[in-house]
Design goal:
Keywords: FAD, Flavoprotein, NAD, Oxidoreductase. This is FAD-dependent oxidoreductase. GO terms for molecular function: NADH dehydrogenase activity. This protein has 401 residues and is an alpha/beta fold. It has 2 domains: 196 residues, FAD/NAD(P)-binding domain; 129 residues, FAD/NAD(P)-binding domain. 27% of the residues lie in helices and 26% in strands. The protein has 9 helices and 25 strands. Strands 5-2-1-9-21 form a 5-stranded parallel sheet. A 5-stranded parallel sheet has the order 11-18-12-13-14. Strands 6-7-8 form a 3-stranded antiparallel sheet, with no helix packed on it. Strand 15 and strand 16 form a beta hairpin. The radius of gyration is 22 Å and the shape is globular. The model has no long low-confidence stretch (mean pLDDT 95).
């Protein structure tokens, strides 16, 4: 029997850990149940931190962990899923192709930044969506110091006033000072189509965010979107033109394109609709998890967000349940009633809220300490020690926060 997991992000990593945990509990050998994880690299990209400086350091190796729990690593990118024949086709870095059959499949392919066809965005826009994108932005920022102080060199525009946009924008003043010098007259501007900053956070936490932006000197342009980009800067939908050499696009994400190959229903974000055990209805043997799945967190109408907080726990349930079907033991319905946010606000601290109603629990330096612990400890893979790694993946206990 073979269980194949596509993706080495938070959901894919915990799917592998959890499936291996159940295999161990049931006394089944790796020869009897092969668990294979397919990804371009055996590395976890710590995506929630890519707004920070030195993004090339924001990865964690997985190969030793996978070896410790007897999970096979298959290097390459899945470009085709054939659900009827239960086969995935993999493109390798060397340009060759190979196939891998499966008895159960876990789709943990994550998400991608949504890039609309705005004139000039592809040529002149940056992002913090992937490791390569974040490294390109960091290289560009360091290159600004060698350019003349004209044409908006010291101005950064962040398109999108949601979670990612705010974290990128509030980190930027310190990054720019470190590169351009403490006396540089830098500007950071957030452009948000909605009438308020952080539209998904609600009215409760918003004054804390607005105060932090004011403290850092971050400007906002609300009720307007990006109409076009060119070498001189960015033009907004209200006609305003802002001279800048740096535009960071942070306006929404969608499930990775591979989910479109699964013949099933999807939501507006491209996520596969799943049942309580994270199966894809109507497609035998296929589970979806993390940013690839639209899953109910509870019975109150709350659904998992596209975040590592939900992906880790969802991954553990998906891996457990896919293995459980093969091993003939009961599956466990996914549930995640606890929900928190911890929003980094740069030198202004952070904001920690609890619950879907975003009740504020911590602000400032106290919340910042928690954010640092989340970013540097909690979301990283377990150590490559078999017993501890397997124990970390109990679906009922897994949480990144």
């Amino acid at each position: 029997m073979r269980l194949v997991i596509i993706g080495a992000g938070f959901a894919g990593m915990y799917a592998a850990l959890s499936a291996a945990r159940l295999r161990e509990i049931q006394g089944v050998s790796p020869d009897e149940l092969d668990i294979a994880l397919v990804a371009p690299e055996p590395t976890l990209v710590v995506r929630p931190r890519l707004y920070e400086q030195n993004p090339e350091t924001l990865t964690a190796p997985l190969l030793d962990v996978l070896k410790a729990i007897d999970v096979s690593y298959v290097q390459g990118s899945v470009d085709t899923v054939e659900t009827q024949s239960r086969m995935v086709r993999i493109a390798t870095a060397k340009g060759t192709k190979k196939t891998l059959s499966y008895d159960r499949l876990v789709v943990a392919t994550g998400s991608r930044l949504f890039r609309p066809s705005i004139p000039g965005l592809a040529e002149h826009g940056f992002s913090v969506d992937s490791l390569d994108d974040a490294i390109a932005l960091d290289k560009h920022l360091h290159g600004l110091a060698k350019r003349p102080t004209v044409n908006g060199r010291d101005t950064v525009v962040v398109a999108g006033g949601g979670f990612t946009g705010i974290e990128a924008a509030t980190e930027m003043p310190a990054r720019l000072r470190a590169i351009l010098g403490p006396n540089a007259k830098t500007r950071v501007i957030i452009v948000e189509r909605n009438s308020a900053i952080a539209p998904d956070m609600g009215a409760g936490p918003r004054p804390v965010i607005e105060s932090a932006l004011h403290k850092l000197g971050v400007e906002t342009r609300l009720g307007a979107g990006v109409a076009s980009l060119d070498e001189s800067g960015v033009t907004l939908s209200n006609g305003e033109h802002i001279e800048t050499e740096t535009v960071i696009w942070a306006a929404g994400i969608r499930a990775a394109p591979l989910t479109a190959q699964i013949p099933a229903e999807r939501d507006n974000f491209g996520r596969l609709l799943v049942d309580p055990c994270l199966r894809v209805p109507g497609v035998e043997g296929v589970f979806a998890t993390g940013d690839a799945a639209r899953a109910a967190c509870d019975d109150e109408g709350n659904y998992a967000l596209m975040s590592c907080q939900h992906a880790t726990r969802m991954g553990a349930f998906a891996g457990n349940n896919a293995a459980a079907e093969l091993l003939g033991v009961p599956t466990r319905p996914y549930h995640q009633k606890a929900y928190v946010t911890c929003l980094d606000l740069g030198e202004a601290g952070a904001l920690f809220t609890r619950g879907w109603d975003r009740k504020i629990e911590m602000v400032g330096d106290v919340a910042k300490k928690t954010k640092r612990e989340i970013n540097t400890v909690w979301i990283y893979p377990p150590k490559a020690e078999r017993a501890a790694a397997l124990a970390s993946a109990d679906p009922e206990r897994v949480t990144s926060l």
